[in-house]
Amino acid sequence: xxxxxxxxxxxxxxxxxxxxxxLALNRLTVKLLxxxxxxxxxxFRRTEEAVVGADAETFAxxxxxxxxxxxxxxxxxxxxxxxxLEALPGYLGAGAGPVQAAVHVAELDHLSYRSATLGA
Length: 120
Known about the structure:
CATH superfamily: Macrophage Migration Inhibitory Factor
Number of strands: 4
Strand content: 25-35%
Structural class: alpha/beta
InterPro entries: 5-COMe_2-OHmuconate_Isoase, Tautomerase/MIF_sf
Helix content: 25-40%
Order of helices and strands: EHEEHHE
Oligomer: single chain
Organism: Kitasatospora phosalacinea
Protein name: 5-carboxymethyl-2-hydroxymuconate Delta-isomerase
């Protein structure tokens, strides 16, 4: 059931291989958290602007949020975060410039989560 959200700044829009990165995220989640491939849901949200730090330098920003049901160890969640950060540069493309990246793997309340395939 992993629900994955990738926020990225506008500056990366033309060079970020989102589909490739999304597929990589799904594979990593299957491998490291023992998720079922068909349950991985990854979406991307383009952000016009982000401010990083307190100086005038402009960074691109990528923030990955992974929500999973309870039961995965803290070590497994941390391993996923590290693997995501290692994989990301390969999907940013040439000329991305400095990119700040963050990953957060959190547990989701399974009692309140619902999912369905509509129109099938």
